Amino acid sequence: MKTCIFGAGAVAGLAAARMARGGVENLSVVARGDHLAAIQENGLTVRDRDGEWTVPIHATDDTAALGVQDILIMGLKAHTVGPALGQLAPLIGPQTAVVHMVNGIPWWYFHDLPGNWPTPYLDSVDPGGRIAAALGPEKAVGCVVYVGANIPEPGVVEHNNGGTYIVGEPDNSESERAQGVVDLLNRGGLKGKLSTDIRRDVWTKLWGNLSGNPMSVLCQANCEQLGQDAEVCGIMGEMMIEAGQVASASGCDVAPNVTERLDTFRSLGTIKTSMLQDFEAGKTIELDALLGVICELGRRDGVKTPTCDMIFALTRLKARAAGCYQPTA
Question: Could you read off the pLDDT of 239-261 as tens digits, one per residue?
């Protein structure tokens, strides 16, 4: 079985390194720039909670040479998938399982979801349905990740906390291919879990991301600083409540426990959100798939989201002025 990790950033890179150390065969990673050069020369290094270690792993930027994969794990942020479609194409065949480790509402969200939806795509994450058309929603396997990691230097992944990868089919079946992905992750010592309600898992993680991430950029504050401000927490709570109403109108009747989510966010301490890290590094932030999509769904389904709309507009303008925002394309 051939497995490729496309976009070996912190979260997917950790999975790749752990799988390599666990003896997974026919494993490759696709990276670019200095990160690729470092992996090719020195292997992929993980600064783990139990020490530092390095594994050799086949790394390339030539997807045509790799050919069709049985499992393709994408570590791309939502707004970077469209520009990468040409490079992804050689990796995907009729039977390829496409596993996208992504925050926010995924491009495959409406596939196999009962109901009459105006369109099977959302422009915030898949303008015009271009991604679904290219990758094939029937190939999608959902993945929700709880991992704290970053790349302090090329060829190195720093693992700070967590290690859970929740995997599930869009139709919520317990399929052989989804279980196969779970088994690969578990071989690497990670916590792969099979979900029978992957959209619920998507929304459960999204409560914190849709509120805390944009707010961290607006305030340029870490989790502890945000969590200790009662007024800011009140705004974040309103965003979660609005998003819960959107979720219910979008085929997933799940409501956030606002107090619990804020307590969890506060417990992260001085950690900076991934969105704030990207903003401070001058990178494009993943705003549309986390918050813009809530506003889009609200408009489409007739659910008012005034707080989400306001925070989205303010964060978008701040990021655009800093050169850190571009609409999903």
Answer: 999 999 999 999 998 889 999 98
CB 116 within 8 A of CB 72: no
* Residue 264 confidence (pLDDT): 85
CB 287 within 8 A of CB 316: yes
pLDDT value for 162: 87
* Tokens encoding 175: 């399929």
How far apart (Å, rounded) are the C-alpha atoms in residues 179 and 44? 26
Closest C-alpha among 130, 131, 149, 150 to residue 140: 131
Element (H, E) at 92: none
CB of 93 closer than 8 Å to CB of 66: no
Domains of the chain, first to last: 3-196 (3.40.50.720), 200-321 (1.10.1040.10)
74 beta partners:
6, 100
Strands 140-153 and 27-30: unpaired
The angle subtended at Cα 263 by Cα 310 and Cα 200, nearest 5°, is 70
- Provide the 8-state DSSP code for 128: G
Pairing of strands 156-168, 51-55: unpaired
Q: Are 290 and 125 in contact (CB under 8 A)?
A: no
Q: How far is CA 126 from CA 54, 117, 271, in A?
A: 36, 15, 30
* Alpha carbons within 13 A on the beta-carbon side of 54: 11
Could you confirm whether 205 is annotated as catalytic? yes
3-state secondary structure of 228: coil
Catalytic residue among 205, 283, 304, 318: 205
Cα–Cα distance measured from residue 164 to residue 123, given in angstroms and rounded to the nearest whole number: 29
Instruction: Print burial letters for 177-194: b (CB count within 10 Å at least 16), e (below 16).
Output: bbebbbebbbebebebbb
Helices (H), 31-167: 33-42, 63-66, 85-88, 130-135
Q: How many CB atoms lie within 10 A of CB 45?
A: 21
